[in-house]
Amino acid sequence: MPDTVFVSGTVTDDKGYFLLNVAKNEYLLKISMLGYKPDSLKIVDEHTGTITLLPQKEMLKEVVVTGAADLFKMENNGISADIQNTPLKNMGNLSEVLGQMPFVVKDDDAYTVLGKGTPISYINNREEMIFLKRLKIKISLVTMV
Fold it and tell me: What is the SS3 string spanning the chain?
């Protein structure tokens, strides 16, 4: 019997039992599981019996897990951004970086943190109160309190 049309699919329960709700007919049952050789079996009635899959000797060669840390976080009653591995590090000056911070409102050269008022800015863990547009240094961490 050729395999021509997908009719239904299912997964097993904790004990390996499964149920397919299909019309009574003759079917080719294809079974697969990661780490085991796939198998096919001709089904003519509603009972398949016990199906045993053989382990597959070829295993996965590599698994890559990718994660990302939060760019912005709340700490020390303020907002902190570790920008050293982000596109923000390439911005022209601190004024442009601060304009991208969440909860920070920029109005011309003035900044306000929502619910906090005028912020105190720390660059690389040092308080800065100088001309933001002219400040062009390598910035890795920006904190606003």
Answer: CCCCCCCCCCCCCCCCCCCCCCCCCCEEEEECCCCECCEEEEECCCCCCCCCCCECCCCCCCCCCCCCCCCEEEECCEEEEECCCCHHHHCCCHHHHHCCCCCEEEECCEEEECCCECCCEEECCEEECCCCCCCCCCCCEEEEC
